[in-house]
């Protein structure tokens, strides 16, 4: 379906042409003086020089051609040469009626869907999920859903950190505590036990302990390095123990992500591509692109146009070990081999920008992907506490994601439980649902690249630019529609048709709805979930103004009432679609 603004612009372009001017001048924009008009066109101003005419005369000519327009209710040429526009009520309502019938409210499917691999989440095995991983999960999940809604084929990959020194550290610490385990016995040839020798809680304590020890004790560190090396070289016992660490850690991650309503299609990790590394490195050397420098193997990636220095990309360390860049490069290669994607998008902290710049340049230089493949890094800012510093626990430690989630659940539980109509079981479920909306909306409503302040009080408020406010609006609509439907003889909601706007508030609401498909297209193209948040906030505000100024269910004119019911239904459907792509949902009541 043609976008609303495009239809209006087309009508305007026709008028410019009919009056003898270039149709390119007929671009219409949303009014920046809503007190004067709904839309405006500044084309006459731009045309003045070209046609050696006063802009007001051009505007007058164009306005003359729009007499009896099917789109504009009024076209005013005002000095020095603006065209102030108001839309016809019947044009607006028939657009909305059409939208309600179309799949995806008239958002057009792409001609050819793009295949996209989305790399997000990125948790590290054996380390607890912390709030830094929250943003990647929340933003990535929204980006995935937005792209899918838009019609693209997206594969989400978690890209576990499962291959570095942290694995050697955990193995070392386990070997100190339980030296008699069969995993450490080189002569052991039997089958390794099915049960893991630690719980997830133990694992979460083992890693920080090992990390601390390795910093204080060079011998311990050397042992951890050696274990990492032996693991990567394929030591049978260490590989088996490593698998246990993965199993225990991943089972716990799956629970955490399920609570966040985040899920992945692929659970690849850095380890997945281990065997692809030697071949890739050999090819880089053969092409003469990788060379030795201070013992390490590197690829130059600096470009003449760089404004700051981009250091060479290190492919292998001097001891021959692979690094974060190596696994990322081999992963690009494997993704290309298996999926041949049009785009690979990475969602990480923006402090990894240089890393991805080096990785992308190396991938291109070495021909790991075809030229037309897009490699994109979406870097996000830091989640800060109210003091403006990175979010910490009260005693200054790194905040675990599960603790943060239970804090926000507690806050919400208190609010929901105060509603006497809701029993304890429903209250608990609703509290979690609303808390998730608070958390995700609080994050997504900011432009991803910016830092933001995590403020539980503000995020959980039922008023203002918050997730709970949006849910509250949806719940309000649901309740009106349910009341309407339960009245005897009511026409089914689905059969109700949107009529002409009766008030300014109603027209504002309708105009918002008409902008849905353009907004969604834009949110996808710019990879910008915050645009959807801004849209539903305005839509909710305009809906609530309409609601407060209109007695919907008490209306005696049935036609009018049914038209409002249809309008409510469309508002609800669009709000629910938007929150679904953002990654949360609304309860029945709250
Ligand atoms: N595990 C990494 C971290 O915690 C994030 C991984 C992001 N994805 C990637 N392909 N590098 O920082």
Q: What secondary-structure arrangement, pairings included, does this model have?
A:
Elements: H1 4-18, E1 28-30, E2 39-41, H2 43-51, H3 55-65, E3 72-78, E4 82-87, H4 89-101, E5 115-119, H5 131-150, E6 153-157, H6 165-177, H7 200-216, H8 218-233, H9 236-259, H10 277-286, E7 290-293, E8 296-299, E9 313-316, H11 324-339, E10 343-349, H12 353-365, E11 374-380, E12 383-384, H13 401-417, H14 424-444, E13 452-453, H15 456-459, H16 467-486, H17 504-514, H18 516-525, H19 529-549, H20 558-582
Parallel strand pairs: 5-6, 5-10, 10-11, 12-13
Antiparallel strand pairs: 1-2, 2-4, 3-4, 7-8, 8-9
Helix pairs in contact: 1-3, 2-3, 4-17, 5-18, 6-7, 6-8, 7-8, 8-9, 11-12, 13-14, 16-19, 16-20, 17-19, 18-19, 19-20
Bound molecules: arginine.
């Amino acid at each position: 379906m043609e976008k609303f603004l495009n239809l209006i612009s087309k009508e305007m372009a026709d008028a410019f042409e009919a009056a003898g001017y270039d149709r390119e001048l007929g671009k219409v924009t949303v009014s920046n003086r809503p007190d004067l008009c709904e839309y405006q066109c500044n084309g006459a101003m731009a045309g003045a020089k070209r046609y050696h005419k006063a802009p007001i005369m051009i505007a007058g000519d164009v306005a003359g051609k729009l007499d009896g327009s099917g789109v504009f209710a009024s076209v005013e040429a005002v000095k020095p040469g603006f065209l102030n526009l108001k839309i016809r009520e019947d044009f607006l309502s028939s657009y909305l009626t059409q939208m309600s019938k179309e799949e995806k409210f008239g958002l057009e499917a792409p001609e050819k869907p793009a295949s996209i691999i989305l790399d997000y989440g990125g948790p590290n095995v054996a380390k607890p999920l912390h709030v830094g991983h929250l943003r990647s999960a929340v933003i990535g999940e929204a980006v995935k859903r937005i792209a899918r809604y838009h019609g693209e084929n997206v594969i989400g990959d978690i890209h576990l950190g499962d291959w570095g020194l942290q694995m050697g550290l955990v193995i070392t610490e386990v070997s100190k505590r339980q030296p008699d385990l069969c995993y450490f016995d080189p002569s052991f040839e039997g089958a390794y036990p099915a049960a893991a020798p630690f719980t997830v809680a133990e694992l979460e304590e083992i890693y920080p302990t090992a990390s601390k020890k390795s910093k204080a004790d060079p011998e311990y560190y050397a042992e951890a390095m050696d274990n990492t090396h032996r693991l990567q070289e394929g030591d049978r016992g260490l590989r088996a123990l490593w698998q246990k660490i993965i199993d225990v850690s991943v089972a716990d991650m799956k629970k955490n992500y399920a609570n966040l309503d985040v899920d992945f299609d692929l659970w690849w990790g850095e380890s997945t591509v281990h065997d692809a590394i030697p071949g890739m490195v050999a090819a880089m050397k053969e092409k003469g692109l990788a060379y030795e420098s201070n013992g390490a193997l590197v690829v130059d990636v600096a470009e003449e146009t760089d404004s700051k220095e981009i250091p060479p990309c290190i492919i292998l360390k001097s001891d021959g070990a692979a690094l974060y860049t190596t696994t990322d490069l081999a992963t690009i290669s494997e993704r290309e081999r298996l999926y041949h994607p049009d785009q690979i998008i990475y969602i990480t902290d923006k402090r990894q920008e240089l890393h991805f710049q080096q990785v992308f340049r190396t991938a291109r230089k070495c021909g790991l992907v075809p030229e037309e493949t897009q490699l994109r890094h979406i870097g996000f800012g830091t989640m800060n506490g109210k003091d403006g510093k990175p979010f910490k626990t009260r005693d200054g430690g790194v905040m675990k994601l599960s603790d943060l989630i239970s804090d926000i659940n507690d806050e919400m539980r208190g609010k929901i439980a105060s509603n006497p109509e809701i029993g304890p079981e429903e209250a608990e479920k609703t509290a979690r649902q609303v808390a998730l909306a608070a958390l995700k909306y609080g994050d997504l409503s900011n432009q991803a690249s910016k830092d933001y302040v995590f403020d539980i009080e503000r995020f959980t408020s039922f008023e203002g630019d918050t997730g709970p406010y949006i849910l509250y609006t949806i719940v309000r609509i649901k309740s009106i529609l349910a009341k309407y439907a339960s009245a005897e003889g009511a026409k089914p909601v689905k059969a109700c048709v949107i009529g002409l706007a009766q008030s300014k508030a109603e027209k504002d609401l309708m105009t918002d709805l008409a902008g849905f498909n353009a907004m969604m297209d834009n949110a996808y193209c710019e990879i910008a979930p915050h645009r959807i948040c801004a849209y539903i906030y305005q839509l909710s505000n305009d809906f609530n103004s309409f609601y407060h100024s209109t007695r919907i269910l008490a209306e005696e004119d049935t036609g009018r009432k049914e038209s409002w019911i249809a309008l409510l239904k469309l508002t609800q459907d669009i709000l629910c679609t938007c929150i679904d792509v953002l990654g949360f949902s609304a309860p029945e009541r709250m």
